[in-house]
Amino acid sequence: MKQIPIKRAVERVPGGMMVVPLMLGAIIATLAPGTPKFFGSFTGALFTGALTILAVFYVCMGASIDFKATPYIIKKGGTLFAVKIGMGILAGVVLGRLLGEAPIDGGLFAGISTLAVVAAFNDTNGGLYMALMGQYGKPRDVGAYTIMSLESGPFLTMVTLGVAGLSAFPWQTLVGGILPLVVGMILGNLDRELRDFLAKAVPVMIPFFAFALGAGLDLTKVWQAGLLGVGLGVAVVVLTGIPLFFADRLTGGTGVAGVAAASTAGNAAAVPAIIAASNPVYTEAAKHATILVAAAVVVTAILVPLVTAWTARLVGAPADLPEEPAEAEAMAAPTEAKGA
């Protein structure tokens, strides 16, 4: 039987494994909103089970994070991680003072919110970063994502919103936001075979939770996210890329690794829904934020490779440095999983 390259076609779309199922779910929800209730059972669960699937996703992703890392990887990854999160906190503080928790409800910027911006800033597309560093960097630069992958999940977004002076989250919710990732990290580091077993499941779950997220969206509002989504993606590249460039140079790099980290991970689109489930005050903002962050995923996936290639030509390739044997082991496993 002749094969149809569905997977390959989806992967040609930037962030395709996240974006395509999300849009498919949104189309069904817009044109046939009664579908989940009509079919019920397992079919209905596919439309409504995003948070459950995400909980399993974060356990499996945590298992792929290796505690073992060389000093260079800790320094490089830790610096890029701190700068990326720091820019999210700065954006949260500034916008929190101006907007509070609610989105802008009218005009050119209708739908933009502190939640959307912080979620887009806080999480790096790991698959994209590692692919770019494989081309323009060294294995030790690729391994830096071992530390940066701690950005995954809603925990740091919750912390950022609290630091920004917006509605805080009870400690149980904060712990619950990071617990699946931590449990996965412990399991994966106690048993390498278990790490390999769980890590393989991460890319498989991405389209399923993306579809369920999309099933909660109304496409009649997507047009508002058009230019705003593009603007948010450009803002992520510019406003995080410049500080990351200089931070990378301060840690002995050329700046290329910093620019390669100036993106938004596909799974960041899931964060607004999780935040709203944890604190209903963000419910209205989350409706728009999911689409905006998904748009930022696509925009940054297109822009970051172009800007990284341009930066590499401008500043040159990283100097040839001897690699340490532990570095290859320290790299987080599934590249597709990290970028979603």
Task: Give the key terms.
20 helices, disordered C terminus, globular, about 350 residues
Describe the protein:
It is built from 20 helices and no strands. Helix 7 (114-122) runs parallel beside helix 18 and helix 15 packs across helix 18 (283-315). It has helices spanning 6-12, 16-31, 35-39, 41-48, 50-63, 71-99, 114-122, 126-136, 139-143, 145-148, 155-163, 171-190, 192-199, 202-214, 222-250, 256-260, 271-278, 283-315, 326-330, 335-339. It has a domain at 73-185 and 220-339. It starts with 5 loop residues before the first helix and ends with a helix. Mean pLDDT is 82; it is low at 319-328 and 330-338. It is an all-alpha fold.
- SSE sequence, one letter per element: HHHHHHHHHHHHHHHHHHHH
- Radius of gyration (CA) equals 19 Å
Count of individual helical segments: 20
Taking the alpha carbons of the first and last residues, their distance comes to 30 Å
The largest sheet, given as strand count, sense and whether it forms a barrel, is: none
The rough form would be described as globular
Strand content: under 5%
Number of E-type strands:
0
Outline the low-pLDDT stretches.
319-328, 330-338
**Mean pLDDT across residues:** 82
**Helix and strand composition category:** mainly alpha
Helix content: over 70%
Short recap of the structure:
The protein is mainly alpha-helical. The protein has 20 helices and no strands.
